[in-house]
Structure formats: C-alpha cells, structure tokens
Amino acid sequence: MLALGxxxxxxxxxxxxxxxYLRDEDxxxxxxxxxxxxxxxxxxxEIEVFVYLDNEERPVATTLKPFIxxxxxxxxxxxxxxxxxxxxxxxxxKELFVPFSxxxxxxxxxxxxxxxxxxxxxxxxxxxxxxxxxxxxxxDIDVQKFDKVNLLVSHFSEHGAHVIINETYQxxxxxxxxxxxxxxxxxxxxxxxxxxxDKKIDVLLQPEGYKSVEPNAxxxxxxxxxxxxxxPVHDKSSPEDxxxxxxxxxxxxxxxIGALYRDRQINITENxxxxxxxxx
Length: 280
Known about the structure:
Layout: E1 6-16, E2 19-23, E3 29-33, E4 46-53, E5 59-62, E6 72-81, E7 85-89, E8 96-99, E9 112-120, E10 125-129, E11 148-157, E12 160-165, E13 169-174, E14 187-195, E15 201-204, H1 210-226, E16 230-231, H2 239-246, H3 250-262, E17 266-268, E18 273-275
Antiparallel strand pairs: 1-2, 1-4, 2-3, 4-5, 6-7, 6-9, 7-8, 9-10, 11-12, 11-14, 12-13, 14-15, 16-18, 17-18
C-alpha cells in the first residue's frame, strides 16, 4: 500500500472517466482525479503526486502541494470546529482533522495554530495535533556550532523566540540576538550557536563571529552602491538606526565596516559611511 502523507513518483497507467490511474514500481495503484491531470499528459509519463485519504477514506493522489507532510510541522488556520474536534486548512480539498484530545487549548475558527501531522496507526488516517512539543526530542542531536539549519518559529516567551530546528529539535533564539521582525509560523534559516550539556540548543539568525563578517560586508557594500555611494550611518549610530538600514546588530555592522575600511573600500566619517574613490 502507498504510504499516506508523502510524495510518490508514479507512472500514468491508464486514463478512465474519473481520472488517471497511477502505478509505482511495486504495482501499487492510486487514482488521480481528472481535475489534477497534467496538461498534455501521455500514458507512461512519470508524475510526482501526494497521497492521502479522500472524503470516503479511500487513498487518492493530488498534484496540489500540501502545507504540511507526515511527521512535519506547519502553521495552519482553523476553518471549523465540530462536536468531535477541529479542522484546519492544509492546502488540500479535504481538511485535516485535529481531535479535541490533540489540542493544547480549544481551537477557534479563524485562528492559526502550529500543528504536527502524523499517521494514526489505529485508524490509518492522517491527523493533526497542536501539542507539537510532544513530537520534539532533543536526543541524538546531530547539529553542532556554526551549522546552518532550517527554523520554524513556534512561539515566544520572555527569553526569546522558540524554534523548531530541522523539523526535529527544539531551540531558542535569545531575544537580545533578534534584530528583525519575526513571527510565529515564519520559516527562515538559522545558525547553531551552542548545544548545551543539558541538550538545549541556542540558535542565531545571523552567522556568528568571523563567519558573519564577509557576507555582511558585501551586503553593506552593495547597499552603498545602490544609494549613490553614501549612507547616513556610521560606527557611532544607534543600534536601532543600524538595524533599520541593514537588519543586523551594531556589533556585526562595526565588524563589517571595519573589514571594508581595512580593505580600503569605504571612508567612515562623523555622519556617514561612503564608498572610497578607487583612484585614491
């Protein structure tokens, strides 16, 4: 049987009135409804589809891209609440069911929630849960300092932004290292700052130390070129002004302009930074 909640590469086997029947290498079959048939298809063409259960609990394929995959997380909108639970929009015709028992707090129609999706082995149905922390285990950690990772912002606390790292671990971006507007549900790159002895992971939104200087220096150089060679910020500017212009901390800004100055690319004045005349 084809695994639910996953993408499959399949071959178009035959064209029938409900749609296209697809088969895989193991001769498993699934129906792709006609409205999802690719334009100009031919029998034996290979196609990638997502497989889930339709409203009659039958496996069905779609070329739509769901917002979430099995054993993954996504920020989803609750579309309705019934006597048995809530339903959230995950980008497909049939909405994802979230039982009351899987809700941290009772979901409300129109509100957004971070949801984990898994296959309920008892019912063989894809089910959602807003109790996402249950599915995050900081064990057998395979990330280390300086690693670039994928982040999903799960919630905020007095300590900063709590994030899901590579769909697997919990991490924290400390509030004093956040220099951009981020919100729950945002997906963005991050960098491992430290894996603690207690398995907690500190994360940065900018590369740390020397690894950050070169890209920031190049970015500032390009911004100067786009703005006629001068910008009204300098090493004495406030952190807020620097962040407004470049979206980075003052510490990283000073390292970057220091690198540009040493490379004789800019002049630093009392009121601005300016591209240097290369003939000087």
